[in-house]
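Take a specimen:
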Amino acid sequence: MSESQIYQGAATMDKITSLAKRRGFVFQSSEIYGGQNGAWDYGPLGVELKNRIARNWWKEMVQLHDEIVGLDAAILMHPRVWEASGHVENFTDPLVDCKKCKTRFRADQIPPECVSEKKCPECGGELTDTRKFNLMFKTHIGPIESNDDNNVIYLRPETAQGIYVNYKNIIQSNRMKLPFGIAQIGKAFRNEIVTKNFIFRTCEFEQMEMQYFVKPGTDVEWFNEWKKRRWAYYEKLGIKMERLRWHQHGADELAHYAKDAYDIEYLFPMGWKELEGVHNRSQYDLTRHTKYSGKDLQYIDQDDGNKKYIPFIIETSAGLTRTLLMLLCDAYDEEKVADKGVEDDWRTVLRFHPAIAPVTVAVLPLQKKDGLAELARDIRAGLREDFATDYDQGGAIGRRYRRQDEAGTPFCVTVDYETKENGSVTLRFRDSMEQIRLPREELASRLFQEIKAYKRTK
């Protein structure tokens, strides 16, 4: 199946960015001042979606595994950490500038002939020589800023190093035995040469990473196992699997620490792009931190005669904000419908899995009067302990359904005059637009049942 066939009738980046602002998912940072390039703010629906993605990932990686624990390491770390990790020396991109139009490019992302001929791909002007550009944000710590490196500190470009430097602490405090993992969700910062494609590549972002420590010689087995598990995770989320594929890093792509690496790529509107990486980081990181810190980071294997060795590390690394963009693109749909309460028309709908939808259930009174609004608020109050809820009483019921469809709300509960008579409500399903009647007291249990059994059909 071709890319155009896979994406027929689906999202474009213009549609996604427009909906994101209109419905309060994502705003440009500092917009009233003209915006800050490479930075974005997450509005009411966006922060709810982001938090649910994080909780869902944490459940999958920590809650469901006895041998994986969590960590929240500091953003600011000792600068020697980044020397040991190789970031000071190797975390660079090749940079060129156009002398005419002043556009800046990564040299590895423009046609090779443009670099060799020093010709700008935009205006044809002369390009500068290629130079290395370190992606780490550098700042100073302490009351006095000086020109020497005595008080230099970096904003972390990844969360993994916080796990490595705490690995021995966690073994000792939690009595961990190989194989075991440490998971972390947190902010990272990269001084990107070019930020583009909305929130896909930004200077400030969040990562969801898990480092799995294994006995040498078992690393290939565990590498393949985590590839299977991470692929299965996206199936559970209801992602359109034809929009996912594996990409193995070639010899020219492998990071300095990697023995093997695969990316799960997603077919975004702008093409196939990395969504998550699964890496065999070998013994590189712990070996380097042993050398630079002078601390013994060997594992003592009490189940194998107290042998000492440096574990191998299998890493799964996903971008939280990049996952949010993927879910917006994957959930986006437009269809011509005949819905109860409105004439035949087109609707925009976000088909989020109910487990990650920003709002799980919206409660809608048919009218504001005759006590229906008060009854609807009471029903919402009974649901909000277990579900993310919304309340909307403005406009025709069909228009309110449309607003909830566009926000990705999987269920709507309509409160009408029959509710006053016998206590029953109407439950509407986002994907099928089917409506059923059920007693108010059965509503919560039915919602739990529908969420657990959810299967995406479109």
